[in-house]
Amino acid sequence: xxxxxxxxxxxxxxxxxxxxxxxxxxxxxxxxxxxxxxxxxxxxxxxxxxxxxxxxxxxxxxxxxxxxxxxxxxxxxxxxxxxxxxxxxxxxxxxxxxxxxxxxxxxxxxxxxxxxxxxxxxxxxxxxxxxxxxxxxxxxxxxxxxxxxxxxxxxxxxxxxxxxxxxxxxxxxxxxxxxxxxxxxxxxxxxxxxxxxxxxxxxxxxxxxxxxxxxxxxxxxxxxxxxxxxxxxxxxxxxxxxxxxxxxx
Length: 249
Known about the structure:
Pyrroline-5-carboxylate reductase 3; 49% helix; five-stranded mixed beta sheet; 7 strands
């Protein structure tokens, strides 16, 4: 609700892609050059292999007043600056799927020409989501973000897989499937809320719910035997390395 739909222009490769924007009241731009001519803040949301062609097309139309924000995975600030005029104000954000229900989180970084004013504008526009500034140039740990918060495909898949396993375990023990899925989801939601609102380390909260000799510590023993933590850490590392490889490509 920060921006009226009438103030938004969208461009997409087909009418089918644009339909959602038109339904919301946004306008369609006939070509990328026209879109930039009528805009100040430009969001790039493409597949990584498509982005170079898009940047080549918009480069002649980019002017000093434009702010370019990339949502594209695996494309660094440095690459964006190289493919756009060197003085372009560039920011990069990594959103995640729960943003669809206003429960996501984002990390963003900025290029050398983007300052506090541009960062504040972006944070204000995205104020319904937690946004975490990542500094200038995009620190190396920004590559890990797709896997650390419940985020873009790799980590969301990990969280969903864990939720599925929790629910299926309950089903195995006799709980109806729909109820098991709901309880698993609510459990994850409550755990996340506790982490965010208490600021406690996960290990502290985990210890708080482990009664000596109780059911929880017996369950955790099984997870430790299955090397859950090492497996998840390996998954984060694998996703991060793949993101770096994509940037090199």
